[in-house]
Design a protein that fits this description.
Blueprint: H1 3-36, H2 46-55, H3 65-83, H4 102-122, H5 129-158, H6 163-168, H7 178-181, H8 183-197, H9 215-218, H10 221-246, H11 253-273, H12 279-286, H13 289-301
Helix pairs in contact: 1-10, 1-11, 2-10, 3-4, 3-10, 4-5, 5-8, 5-12, 5-13, 8-10, 8-13, 10-11
Length: 302
């Protein structure tokens, strides 16, 4: 079989595994949050039921082409990160389409989905759409600042912008992980990750119990199903990205599952403990603590 076709099929299989692991991880985290609140929570298979139901429905609401392209752009952001992210280190099958300098491209894909959703919300016609757009773009822009500083620190440290090369440099054992060789960049990156995952105290776009609108109510049927699909893929892909950058990557699927679960649990734990920020509090926080840490991380390796 042609190499390009074989590569595509292995990548497609990896995407299928990541999608299902993301849904299982989502249901597990929701059950953990429910137990903290003294409830039982949803059954572990509920995300599959919800996704099947959503894809079987048709939306009766029409706001224009851009409104419906918003979820598609959002999905392309998550899938784009996965496509150019080496999932399993040292594996030809699971390296996907990674290349030298892929870290820069992935940073662009992180913002791509948010911009797509902003364009979709802008055509929704709801008078409060501007609130969600301003909150989302304001917060995500400030999230990118400490994340970019952490990446610059890693680029200086490892002299590369290739994720595969960064993972290769961490293969000398636990003590060679970026967590120990560059703890300040790790701290800046993990603090920015809290905002990227969008759990409390940084769930400002949806703002549960405050604004009765947003993607879960504005989008229906297949379009909401696309957003749920992206959520499952994006959370695993972003957790795998941080695993590669700061925690030595993964040499097999079991290691990937354990590490991505712990990285994702970090944001769930913080979200369970802390209440939601206001938008000005969130922006101010990201521009203070994580940004200062990221700047110091760069200065140390200059």
């Amino acid at each position: 079989m042609d190499y390009s076709i074989t590569k595509f099929l292995w990548t497609l299989l990896g995407l299928f595994i990541v999608l299902n692991w993301g849904m299982l991880m989502s249901s597990t985290m929701r059950r953990i949050g429910a137990r903290v609140s003294g409830r039982f929570g949803i059954p572990w298979y509920q995300p599959w039921i919800d996704l099947t139901k959503l894809y079987s429905l048709k939306s009766q609401v029409s706001h224009g082409a851009m409104f419906f392209l918003g979820p598609v752009f959002r999905l392309m952001g998550g899938v784009g990160i996965f496509l150019f992210l080496p999932i399993i280190y040292g594996s030809d099958h699971w390296s996907n389409y990674s290349f030298s300098g892929d870290l820069i491209l992935i940073l662009y894909f992180q913002f791509f989905g948010m911009l797509g959703m902003a364009l979709g919300a802008g055509e929704g016609g709801h008078p409060h759409s501007a609130i969600g757009i301003s909150r989302g773009l304001s917060q995500f822009t400030t999230i990118e600042v400490p994340m970019t500083l952490a990446v610059i620190s890693l680029a200086i440290q490892y002299q590369t912008l290739s994720i595969s090369d960064i993972v290769a440099a961490q293969q000398g054992g636990f003590t060679t992980w970026t967590l120990w060789t560059n703890p300040l960049a790790t701290a800046a990156g993990m603090l920015s990750l809290l905002g990227a995952f969008g759990h409390s105290p940084f769930n400002l776009v949806k703002a549960p119990n405050e604004i009765p609108i947003g993607p879960p109510t504005e989008y229906h049927g297949v379009f909401l199903g696309v957003l749920r699909t992206n959520g499952a893929i994006l959370h695993v892909a972003e957790a795998a990205l941080f695993m590669n950058l700061f925690f030595g990557g993964a040499t097999n699927w079991v290691e990937l599952i354990v590490k991505t679960f712990l990285i994702y649990f970090w944001s769930v734990f913080v979200g369970t403990v802390f209440p939601r920020f206001r938008i000005e509090q969130s922006v101010r926080w990201f521009l203070k603590v994580p940004t200062i840490i990221g700047i110091i991380a760069i200065i140390i390796f200059l």
